[in-house]
Design a protein that fits this description.
By secondary structure, this protein is α+β, with helices and mostly antiparallel strands. It has one domain. Helix content is 48%, strand content 15%. The strands form two sheets. It has a two-stranded antiparallel sheet. Strands 3-4 form a two-stranded antiparallel ribbon. It is globular, with a radius of gyration of 21 Å. It starts with a helix and ends in an 8-residue tail after the last strand.
Length: 137
Amino acid sequence: MEKTIMTMLLVCGGLQACGYTGTEGRQSIAGGLQSEMQEIRLLMAREVGDASAQRIEQCHAIPVGSKACGGPQSFVIYSTAVSNEHKLQELARQYTEAEEKYNRVTQAMSTCSYITPPEVYLESGKCTIKQSQAWRK
């Protein structure tokens, strides 16, 4: 009997020590995810640079982030003339994954409105859009 009680106490104590519980745990995880997303945004901004291009074919938009009910949060405009496209795609994937986790942890809600990919333009040697769905630096 004593062995059973001792085993149960150890298991219960171990479960509490190994995992986050309640609001404090979610806040701690959410804070870590926010920091991770901020760092990834900085890395993306560095990779995008000034998005300069000589031809419109060098201008692209990549979906970034995740709304709580699905779909991208925004688009990043970049130029293949100055950005490593594969690196940028990987950063966008990491950011989106972190935001999906953040949304689950915080039980976030969103408008569920669908954001269409923006049309990119080459204006004064820079890739840009005429819509407000993208963020740069």
